[in-house]
Amino acid sequence: MNSRLLEILDRADQVVQETGPVRAEGRLSVGVDLGTAYTVMFVLDEEGTPLAGEYHFAQVVRDGVVVDFLGATDLVRSMKERLEARLGRELESAATSYPPGVSPGEVRAVKYVLESAGLSCSTLIDEPSAANTLLQVDQGVVVDVGGGTTGIAVIDQGEVVYTADEPTGGTHFSLVLAGARKISFDQAEALKTDPSRHRELFPLVRPVMEKIGSIISSHIAPFQVDRVYLVGGTCSFEGMAGVVQAATGVETLVPGNPLFVTPLGIALNDGVQTLALAERNN
C-alpha cells in the first residue's frame, strides 16, 4: 500500500468525524455509495483529498437493488444538505456505483435516487472497479464485500478484464450472529462492528468468510492471480484476510479503513468526469 493511499484513507476517517465548516475552493468531486448496509458520501478537493464526508447505516438497498426509493432519496438529500452547509457551497453532481451483474433497470434506479436528491449523476461505475480507482492495482483482484453481495474485479495491466457478483456479504455475518446468540438483527449488527468482540465471534462467522473465499476462488480460477485486495466494511472483521487467503491460496490484503475505499474511488470517478467537462469547456 503506497503512502498516498494510506494518507487518503486516514484523512477520510478524520473527516467523517468532523462537523465544523470546511474551506472548499476549486473543483469538487462527490461520490455516493448506496450500500446494502451503509450509505456513504464523500467530497474531495482537486487533489483527491477528502474534505468532508458522512456515512449512515440504512437498509434502503438490498443486494444492489434499491428497495426503498423514498428512504434512499431522503437520506442522500439530507447528507447532501449537511455537507453543503459545512462546505458553504452547493453540490451539483456526483458519481455513484452498482454491484457487477445487476440489471440495467436497477443501475438506473441508483441514478434516479441521486437525481431525486438534487444531484446530477456524472457517472456510474461498478463497485470493485471504483475501488481500484483508488487502489490503483496493476495486477491482481479487487473484491468488494458489501452488505449483501461480493463483487469481484480481475485487473490485468491496470485494466478490469473480468467482473462478477454473487450473494453473500456482511448481512450474512449479522444473520449468523443473530441466530447463534438469539438476538435481533440490529443487535447482531452492533456486535459485528465492535472490534473488541471479533476474536470471540470469529468461530461463528468463519463459515461465511470461507464462503466468500470460495466465491473468489471460483471466479479467479481461469486467471493468473498473485494478490487479492479486500474492501468493504465487512473486511474490517479480524481474521477475514487470513481465511480468504487460506481458501484461495493467494496473498490477501485489506487496506486500512476498507469501508471507505469504494466510496472514495467513486468520488474520484466524479473528479475524472468533472475535469473532462472543464477541459471541454475551455
Q: Name the CATH homologous superfamily of the domain at 14-126 and 262-273.
A: ATPase, nucleotide binding domain
Distance between the termini: 36 Å
Structural class: alpha/beta
**What is the CATH level 1 assignment of the domain at 14-126 and 262-273?**
Alpha Beta
Helix content: 40-55%
The count of helical stretches stands at 9
Beta strands, count? 12
Supply Rg. Answer: 18 Å
Order of helices and strands: HEEEEEHEHEHEEEHHHEHEH
Query: Can you tell me the residue ranges where pLDDT is under 50 for at least 5 consecutive residues?
Result: none
**Any idea what the CATH architecture of the domain at 14-126 and 262-273 is?**
2-Layer Sandwich
* Beta-strand percent range: 15-25%
Main β sheet profile: 5 strands, mixed
Mean pLDDT: 91
Read across the widest sheet, the strand sequence of neighbours is 3-2-1-6-7
The CATH topology name of the domain at 14-126 and 262-273 reads Nucleotidyltransferase, domain 5
Shape: globular
